[in-house]
Amino acid sequence: MAERRVLIADDEPAARRGVRQLLGRYERFVVAGECRNGAEVLAALDAVQPDVIFLDVQMPGIDAFEVIRRRTPARMPIVVFLTAYDDYAIRAFEVQALDYLVKPVSDARFAVTMERVARQLDASPAQPPGFVITTASGVTVLPLHDIDWIEAAGTYARLWSGRRSYLIRQSLRDLEGRLRAHGFARAHRRALVCLDRIRALTARTAVLASGAAIEVSRRQRAAFAEALRARGNVARR
């Protein structure tokens, strides 16, 4: 069964810790990030791309409803609201939240929520991830199948699609963990390559359909070649 990524957003460390502990008995769900305020949530939604977010209603600066307004309900993962009050229930469901938990949350109530979350996820099989990109002309989604390779760029990563590139604020290590199952492999410490894009593989270089030639380091060479064979790619040395 596919692993699901969870984002926890609450300005109270104890509340975040409580949700993490409750999630500990659900092996299918992995905490991929934690946020303390709405601004961090907006950034993490792009960087982490969670399947589920446990979202505190009242956070410093940007509250949960403003997060959803800016992001739009259609671009949100499954939302489970967290709050110390029950005054926001109607508004929560107006913005298409799946559930609404009043803190402190009991094990039994949390189990009901997780059943709802699992049913919702199973009703819509997970799609290969894409990336929400901010450009000069606005926001767009770059599908995973359009990416040839990914290059480390300091605290960012540069996504290459043909001759065009896009920066996202995410580490290459995190991307490698997410994208390995979708046919990406590390060529060297600063590059991930889409194996399906490779048209030729020499002792030192992977040549992509776009014409890009990516160095394959000595350290990564054996694992990279094995990943290529496992993918069924017919690239020739």
Q: What is the topological layout?
A:
Layout: E1 4-9, H1 13-23, E2 29-35, H2 38-48, E3 52-56, H3 64-71, E4 78-83, H4 89-94, E5 99-102, H5 107-123, E6 131-135, E7 138-142, E8 149-153, E9 156-161, E10 164-168, H6 172-179, E11 184-188, E12 191-194, E13 198-201, E14 205-208, E15 213-215, H7 221-231
Parallel strand pairs: 1-2, 1-3, 3-4, 4-5
Antiparallel strand pairs: 6-7, 8-9, 8-12, 9-10, 11-12, 13-14, 14-15
Residue share in β-strands? 25-35%
Q: Tell me the span between the first and last alpha carbons.
A: 36 Å
Oligomeric category: single chain
Fourth CATH level, the homologous superfamily of the largest domain: Response regulator
Q: What is the arithmetic mean of pLDDT?
A: 88
CATH fold group of the largest domain: Rossmann fold
Number of strands: 15
Mind telling me the C-alpha Rg? 20 Å
Structurally, the number of domains stands at 2
> How does the overall form come out from the CA principal axes?
elongated
CATH class of the largest domain: Alpha Beta
**Main structural class:** alpha/beta
Report the uncertain regions: none
Structure, described:
By secondary structure, the protein is an alpha/beta fold. It has 2 domains: 4-123, Response regulator (Rossmann fold); 139-231, LytTr DNA-binding domain (OB fold (Dihydrolipoamide Acetyltransferase, E2P)). It contains 7 helices and 15 strands. The strands form 4 sheets. It has a 5-stranded parallel β-sheet with strand order 2-1-3-4-5, sandwiched between helices. Strands 10-9-8-12-11 form a 5-stranded antiparallel β-sheet, sandwiched between helices. A 3-stranded antiparallel β-sheet has the order 13-14-15, with no helix packed on it. Strand 11 (184-188) and strand 12 (191-194) form a beta hairpin. Helix 2 (38-48) crosses helix 3 (64-71). The longest helix is centred in the middle third of the chain and has 17 residues, at 107-123. The chain starts with a strand and ends in a 6-residue tail after the last helix.
